[in-house]
Amino acid sequence: AILVWNGSDGTRVERNLITDSYRGIALGLGEPGEISRNRDSGFDHLEGVIQQNVLVNLNRWADEAIEVNKARGVRIEHNTVLVEGAMPWSVSVRFRGTTATVLDNLTNRLVQTRDGATITSAGNVSGAVRGWFVDAVRGDMRLSPAAGPAFDAGVLIQGLETDFDRKPRVAGKAPDAGAFERRPGS
Fold first, then answer.
1. Alpha helix locations (H) across 54-180?
2. pTM of the model
């Protein structure tokens, strides 16, 4: 659905609802050794933020939801991901030299590093199932009462004051993992 590459930098992908897309969001694409417009860095993408997006694909042909390839300094924060294809991960960071900070994401599959990439991570919750969401089939990925492991599981991210619905990010002791903050009693 969203691909930004070939020497790009500073891209911000925020508050998107992406349903039934083979792949969701990618910053960077190129294999090591390919020449991009950003010749000085050797990276396909520099910096950038993938934040508070909702990606859901319940089809068996679904691929990974978020990928960062041959990129440096990308932040992946407070995304909700439910993909049910054959891929064993939901989010991947790939290629030597690629770096990303991965915080407070809610996924049904792993956050995976590949081919020498490195991540700094905290507050992520994997293992989500359809029942953790209000109506995954219709794309309503707000947290249901069954999503207990996601409640208050996140870490505070400076400057991130609201959730996907533009409501206060913290409604409990800490932020919830994922794009939505569950309100007590809702």
1. none
2. 0.93
